[in-house]
What does this fold into?
Amino acid sequence: DCHFQLAVQDPSRYERARTNYFQAMHSPLADIRTRSQAEIGLALVNEKLAKLKSPPEQKQLMQEALDHCLNVAYRNNVARGKGERPDPFWVSQAGQQAGRLAEAMQLGPQAANMIQRLLGEFPQLAKTQPSLARKLQELRNTDGNSTIE
It folds into this structure.
């Protein structure tokens, strides 16, 4: 996280942050919280790096960022054989990031689906993050659908 924060001043640090997040994700000592945080961190690094690259590279890095968030949001990073359970905080964070990234990538229906899923799974978000419900309605209106499945 430190290298990611310092990359604001020195973009070369993004690569170091990327390496560290990748290592944390794949460490045999990492628990589900650590792996989830690292995977979301890797997504954020890819998003920032995308802004520094040419359009073809941007698209690839943004897709990788979205994939990392979806991996956590859909609990694909959970080692069920070891009895792990997903961490609700990081699942929620990943879902919110995935919705934001999908919208930025002009994938409105996918963004709406993720937000709808989040609000269904974590109903308290409607109160603590009212902007999510507004964003869902905005995406539905933009897409021209009254409901998105």
